[in-house]
Design goal:
single chain; 286 residues; seven-stranded parallel beta sheet; three-stranded mixed beta sheet
Length: 286
């Protein structure tokens, strides 16, 4: 199979690429390395890399022209680093998605797979766990607004598509979020604080197990959740990190109250995904 991964040098995209190489698929990656890294990508005769932004139509055309065009597109590219970078969020997450969708339609792509943020449900979800019938309320952040606009353009297209709304993924190559922050500070003997929030964490290999099934055609058109179905406090994550690093517990760990614009927990219900994909996580947080 030929698979195009946008943002394929990132944390999730590169892990998926490795899995596809292992089974003999050809992979084309387009990435501008804004958040991805070239050394995340395993060298392979089955890998083609296009350095460029999905907001640039010529770069997208080059990626779609490689190796005769893709059978499946996995759209993992996203701008997310700066909550005030509205223009960049719009360029990448909206215009870039439109460019990739239109190119996919022109190429006759058989399936289009998108990664959406769970923040699409808003900073104050109406239910826990969040089901797929929850209203879409992304107005709390530029990232959520732009990612949701991208999802809606995908739904407007003629493509057979799946949008995976994701829990907090962690694992090798993950450079943002609480776990790599804890690791960096603890291994340098720096102080650490934790927020008074809870999150649903999923190991990247478990996430990719599900995505590969989608690449192979499992699942209906529409949205799904990829999540563990359990939430943990950030303090619990910190305690597990201390244990894994075999470090002495610090008595002075500060637990800070969450901000007014922060969700107490974002817990996704994965039951439809577990049923349709015959999938569930196999890696416990510890």
């Amino acid at each position: 199979m030929k698979v195009l991964i946008t943002g394929g040098a990132g944390f999730i995209g590169s892990t998926l690429a490795d899995r596809l190489f292992d089974r003999g698929d050809e992979v084309v990656v387009i990435d501008n390395y804004a958040t991805g890294r070239r050394d995340n990508l395993t060298e392979s005769a089955k890998l083609t890399v296009v350095e460029g932004s999905i907001a640039d139509e010529s770069s997208v055309a080059e990626a779609f022209g490689a190796n005769g065009g893709p059978d499946v597109v996995v759209h993992a590219a996203a701008a997310y680093k700066d909550p005030e970078a509205w223009a960049e969020d719009t360029r990448t997450n909206v215009l870039g998605t439109v460019n990739v969708v239109r190119a996919s339609e022109a190429a006759g792509v058989g399936r289009f797979i998108y990664f959406q943020t769970a923040l699409c449900y808003g900073l104050k979800p109406l239910e826990q766990p969040i089901t797929l019938s929850h209203p879409i309320r992304p107005e709390g952040s530029s990232y959520a607004i732009s990612k949701t606009a991208g999802e809606q353009y995908i739904a407007l297209s003629s493509l057979a598509w799946i949008s995976f709304r994701l829990a907090n993924a962690y694992g090798p190559r993950n450079l943002s979020g609480p776990l790599p922050t804890f690791y960096a500070r603890l291994t340098q003997d720096k102080s650490v604080f934790v927020m008074d929030t809870r999150r649903d964490f999923i190991f990247v290999d478990d996430l990719v197990d599900c995505v590969v099934k989608a690449v192979d055609g499992t699942g209906r058109t529409g949205p799904y959740h990829i999540s563990s179905g359990a939430d943990y406090s950030i303090k619990e994550l910190y305690d597990a990190t201390i244990k894994a690093l075999d470090l002495p517990e610090k008595a002075d760990v500060e637990v800070r109250p969450r901000g007014e614009d922060d969700a107490a927990t974002i817990l996704l219900d994965p039951s439809e995904t577990e049923q349709d994909f015959a999938w569930r996580i196999s890696t416990p947080l510890e």
